[in-house]
Amino acid sequence: MKNILIVGGSSAIATACARQWATEGARLFLAARQPIRLEAVAQDLRVRGAAAVATHVLDINDHQQHAAMLAACSETFGPIDVVLIAHGTLCDQALCERDVEAALRELNTNAISTIALLTLVANALLAQGHGSIAVISSVAGDRGRASNYVYGAAKAAVTTFCEGLRARLFKSGIGVLTIKPGFVDTPMTAGLALPGPLVASPERVARDIVHAIAKRKDTLYTPWFWSGIMLVIRSLPRFVFKRVSL
């Protein structure tokens, strides 16, 4: 029976992952900011077959709360087998260009808070001697595009941190999976003009995530075709890239 910690546990992708684990009889510890939404997700997971579900209200930007949340998870279920970090916001690029404080808030939510939490999680899994970490980054972190470079910069920081953390933990047998979704149909992207054929459902992305964690992969582009798309984007010469609208 797996003990799984999900941070950002009420988000669309996290909920879809949790539903898959619930059908396998996992024990799930969900941490998120909104208690009512969190409890609704927990009730749904119990109905779907989870062996146990516990919730913890967490403001991810209050770094002082991270250690208490991890301690609560361990006290509730014991050693943690999988940690999925799935919180985040899709920032208003135009606002961030005008407002330094807005840009810093987005960088804190999407990068600094994740790095702070990962540091504690890595040390906890090292102490117990096993486990897997999975972190939702984004294809946006592969290259700084004019349309979302604040968000992209945050995700690039997460991706690079995870790469170094993976190398650090490798000899200890602890896996680190960097998840790079493309466009996903979630409340976070509602109202955006997205190219329909490239938009995936949270359920499809969740299937890829759960499979990649089980296979102990290092990096996951989801859906799969984003690997090719981002290869092209990364390969564009700089003098071309800065002239195109992406």
Give the SSE layout.
Elements: E1 3-7, H1 12-23, E2 27-32, H2 35-47, E3 52-57, H3 66-77, E4 82-85, H4 93-98, H5 100-128, E5 132-136, H6 149-169, E6 175-181, H7 202-214, E7 219-222, H8 226-235, H9 238-241
Parallel strand pairs: 1-2, 1-4, 2-3, 4-5, 5-6, 6-7
> Number of DSSP strands?
7
Please give the CATH class.
Answer: Alpha Beta
| Corresponding CATH superfamily | NAD(P)-binding Rossmann-like Domain
Helix content range: 40-55%
* Cα-based radius of gyration, to the nearest Å: 18 Å
The total tally of domains equals 1
Distance between the termini: 44 Å
Beta fraction: 15-25%
- The total of helices stands at 9
Any low-confidence stretches, pLDDT <50, length ≥5?
none
Descriptive report:
The structure is a single chain. The chain is of the alpha/beta class and 246 residues long. The protein has a single domain (3-241), classed as NAD(P)-binding Rossmann-like Domain (Rossmann fold, 3-Layer(aba) Sandwich). 49% of the residues lie in helices and 15% in strands. It is built from nine helices and seven strands; from the N terminus they run E-H-E-H-E-H-E-H-H-E-H-E-H-E-H-H. It has helices at 12-23, 35-47, 66-77, 93-98, 100-128, 149-169, 202-214, 226-235, 238-241, and strands spanning 3-7, 27-32, 52-57, 82-85, 132-136, 175-181, 219-222. A seven-stranded parallel β-sheet has the order 3-2-1-4-5-6-7, sandwiched between helices. Helix 1 packs parallel to helix 2 (35-47), helix 1 (12-23) crosses helix 7 and helix 5 (100-128) packs parallel to helix 6. The radius of gyration is 18 Å and the shape is globular. The chain starts with a strand and ends in a 5-residue tail after the last helix. 41% of the residues are buried.
